[in-house]
Design a protein that fits this description.
Number of domains: 2
CATH superfamily of the largest domain: P-loop containing nucleotide triphosphate hydrolases
Mean pLDDT: 83
Order of helices and strands: EHHEEHEHHEHEHEHHHHH
Helix content: 40-55%
Structural class: alpha/beta
Distance between the termini: 40 Å
Largest sheet: 4 strands, parallel
C-alpha cells in the first residue's frame, strides 16, 4: 500500500478491523498485516499487506519494499491535489521494481469537496494501464470490493462469494468457535478451517443454518440444570456424521 502522507492508507486498513502496531512504522518505515479472504466457500487467500510510512528517511527503502510484490493499492485523497500528483512517483517506482503487477487506485475521503476531476483520474489510469479506481469515505471503506478485485486480478478467477475473515474482531465468531469446536459425539476437536469457511460463507443456505446455530447458542444460556444434563447439541465431525447419516460430508 502506497500513497502520500495523510492520503488515508492506514485508515483504510485500520478502520475498526485491522489495527497495526505503530512501533513497526518508526523502526523500519513499513508495517505489516495479514488479511485472510474466503472465496467461493472453498479457497482461502492470505494477503500480506505492507503499509508504507511516508517519511523522508525511509524513501530510499521503498523500491526494495516493492521487490517481489504481487499487487499494489495506491491511495490518494480526492480533496488534496498534491496527494494525487504523488501517484506518479508511486506508480513509476512500483513499475520499475515489480513490473506490470496489478495496481488499483483508492480515492479516499470521497465525501469531501474534490480537488481532482474524474477526467484526470481516468487519464492516469489509461496512461499507466492501471486496474481501476475505487472510492472510500468515513461511512464506506469498500474493503471487500477492493480486495475482491485484487484477487480476481491476481488469480484470474470467477468470484461468486467473498468475505474477509476477521476472527479476532468478531464476537459472534468467537462464541461460535467456543460452542461448536468439539464434536458432541466423539469429543474430538473439529477442523478450524471448515468451521471458519462455514461461518463466513455467503451461501444462503449456510447463512440460514449459521443464524439458527447462533440462535441456539443464545437460547441455551436459559436452559435450566435439568436440560444441561440431558441435552447436548453441536456439529458432528466428518467421521461421526458419516456414521450417523450414512453419507460422506
Amino acid at each position: 500500500m502506497g500513497g502520500a502522507s495523510g492520503a488515508g492508507k492506514t485508515t483504510f486498513i485500520n478502520g475498526t478491523y485491522f489495527p497495526f502496531n505503530d512501533e513497526e512504522f518508526f523502526h523500519i518505515g513499513v508495517s505489516f498485516k495479514l488479511i485472510d479472504c474466503l472465496v467461493n466457500d472453498e479457497d482461502s487467500y492470505l494477503l500480506q499487506l505492507w503499509d508504507f510510512k511516508v517519511m523522508e528517511q525511509f524513501k530510499c527503502l521503498y523500491p526494495s519494499f516493492c521487490r517481489g510484490a504481487k499487487g499494489a493499492l495506491l491511495c490518494f485523497d480526492v480533496s488534496d491535489r498534491k496527494s494525487f500528483e504523488e501517484l506518479h512517483y508511486w506508480i513509476t517506482t512500483i513499475r520499475k521494481v515489480a513490473g506490470t503487477i496489478p495496481i488499483i487506485l483508492i480515492g479516499t475521503k470521497s465525501d469531501l469537496k474534490r480537488e481532482v476531476t474524474v477526467r484526470e483520474i481516468n487519464k492516469i489510469i489509461k496512461t499507466y494501464q492501471l486496474d481501476g479506481i475505487f472510492y472510500t469515505s468515513k461511512d464506506n471503506y469498500n474493503r471487500e470490493t477492493i480486495f475482491k478485485k485484487l484477487i480476481k486480478k491476481l488469480d484470474k478467477i470467477s468470484i461468486k462469494e467473498f468475505a474477509i475473515f476477521l476472527p479476532e474482531y468478531d464476537e459472534n465468531f468467537k462464541n461460535f468457535i467456543d460452542f461448536f469446536s468439539i464434536c458432541p459425539v466423539c469429543k474430538r476437536k473439529l477442523h478450524f478451517n471448515y468451521l471458519k469457511k462455514f461461518f463466513y460463507s455467503r451461501n444462503e443456505e449456510s447463512i440460514r443454518l449459521k443464524d439458527t446455530l447462533l440462535y441456539l447458542i443464545d437460547e441455551s444460556n436459559d436452559f435450566d440444570d435439568m436440560f444441561h444434563r440431558n441435552i447436548e447439541f453441536g456439529i458432528p465431525c466428518c467421521k461421526c456424521y458419516e456414521q450417523l447419516f450414512g453419507v460422506n460430508y
